[in-house]
Amino acid sequence: MTRLYGLQYLRGLAACAVVAYHAADRAQRPFTVGEAGVDLFFVLSGFLMWAITDADSRPGRFLADRAKRIVPIYWIVTSVMLAGALAGLFPAVRLSVAHVVTSYAFLPRCRRATGRYGRCSCPAGR
User: Fold this and answer.
1) Are 41 and 14 in contact (CB under 8 A)?
2) Is 30 exposed, middle or buried (0-12, 13-18, 19+ CB in 10 A)?
């Protein structure tokens, strides 16, 4: 299988643009070009998944492999951020048990102040 390193580097750059967008948003400094990183990341990811798929590919194995790679890292980073929030490093963060549980469970959670999470509208009462 041919390695597509250039596309992987571009995907990494797109992910960094998304992180920069969110960091700039938190600092109330607009970095709107970073929003395009989401689109670029998903387009490249979709292409790469198509490019590496062959007759032996199975959805269950693909999902299990992704979970093994992503879940531990996500939970570690989430735990570090949670510890920082509990230690008072992020004074604007308001934690609730529901917020923490939904984060560890990979479920979206609405921002109470706006009733929105990102661009998606949240149902009332969530």
Assistant:
1) yes
2) exposed
**What pLDDT score was predicted for residue 51?**
83
3-class secondary-structure state, position 106 = coil
pTM for the whole structure: 0.60
Burial class (CB in 10 A: 0-12, 13-18, 19+), 10: middle
Q: Which residues contact 24 (CB under 8 A, 6 or more apart)?
A: 30, 31, 34
pLDDT along the chain (126 residues), means of 10: 80 92 85 88 89 83 90 96 92 86 87 51 48
Strands 120-121 and 116-117, sheet pairing: antiparallel
Place of tokens 């292409």: 47
Check residue 122 and report its DSSP letter: P
